[in-house]
Design goal:
Layout: E1 2-6, H1 11-14, H2 21-38, E2 46-49, H3 57-70, E3 73-77, H4 88-93, H5 98-108, E4 115-118, E5 126-129, E6 132-136, H6 146-155, H7 158-161, H8 166-183, E7 188-190, H9 199-204, H10 210-213, E8 224-227, E9 235-239, E10 242-246, E11 261-264
Parallel strand pairs: 1-2, 2-3, 3-4, 6-7, 7-8, 8-10
Antiparallel strand pairs: 1-11, 5-6, 9-10
């Protein structure tokens, strides 16, 4: 089976918001179509999207709709930006509750039969597809030390745009992760936050940022892990018996020049 993967699409930074609903939809879908075409994917079996699609559920829906039309199966998780409420209208609509935003997205996606949204608040954590067990959730970081909390409060937009403190999301995600450990043997785990230290962490370990960019777990439950958040392109880390892949599109100014990547998973 060919498993394609991408993260951190940040569509709102690539596609200009258009007040005309249909024109905006067309622009989003054309952007995704070009990304797929430029990635030269010959067998579009499964695509995994490791969070940070858009600040708006409607844009996320259009993005996933286009992926669902081109791939047989789509799995994805929320990133921190997907929880953002960046406008007054959003804060009013969701009653200043980011979880309500995730639940609305889950309801919207019921219209797309081949798209699965893994999220610890909806309770959907795992699905078997073509003999493989896919699992996932956001795996939110938890700042603990004084330095990490200071960094989160002073530098992270999450503090401004996500309702509740990260403890709520982290505890929910860790509980979901431990549930998967107890009840399943996953082949592939998808998260937004990495479960391992990355090149980006190694650059910034002394400024408190790791508390907002790494989700610490006691063990790695899947041989294949897909993650995002740190905006690294086409990188694989090997930790023990597990491999951790990340491939971010990122922001336009980062010039990561990323394409959707594909790995082959041999099924029996």
């Amino acid at each position: 089976m060919n498993i394609s993967y991408i993260s951190d699409l940040h569509i709102d930074n690539w596609v200009m918001n258009n007040k005309n609903h249909e024109k905006h939809k067309k622009s989003v879908k054309e952007f995704i179509k070009r990304l797929i075409e430029n990635s030269y994917i010959y067998d579009k079996d499964v695509i995994l999207i490791a969070g940070d699609i858009s600040h708006y559920n409607q844009v996320t829906y259009w993005t996933l709709e286009e992926f669902s039309e081109q791939f047989k199966k789509v799995f994805f998780v929320n990133g921190n930006h997907d929880y953002y409420m960046i406008t007054r209208n959003q804060r009013s609509k969701y009653r200043n509750n980011s979880v309500s935003k995730a639940l609305e997205l889950n309801n919207l996606l019921s219209q797309l039969n081949n798209v699965t949204f893994f999220n610890s608040f909806t309770g959907k954590l795992t699905e078997k597809y073509c003999g493989l067990r896919f699992t996932g959730c956001t795996m939110t970081s938890l700042p603990k030390s004084e330095e990490e909390i200071s960094f989160y409060n002073g530098f992270m937009n999450d503090k401004k745009y996500i309702s509740h403190e990260p403890k709520l999301y982290n505890e929910k995600d860790i509980y979901a992760y431990n549930t998967v450990i107890r009840d399943f043997s996953p082949n592939i785990f998808i998260s937004h936050y990495p479960l391992i230290k990355t090149y980006s962490h190694n650059k910034n370990l002394n400024d408190g940022s790791i508390g907002s960019y790494l989700c610490k777990v006691d063990m790695h439950i899947a041989p294949i892990n897909i993650f995002g958040h740190v905006h690294e392109s086409d990188v694989c880390y090997e930790v023990g018996n597990s491999k951790h892949y990340t491939n971010a599109l990122g922001y336009p100014l980062e010039h990561l020049n990323s394409k959707i990547k594909t790995l082959t998973y041999k099924t029996r």
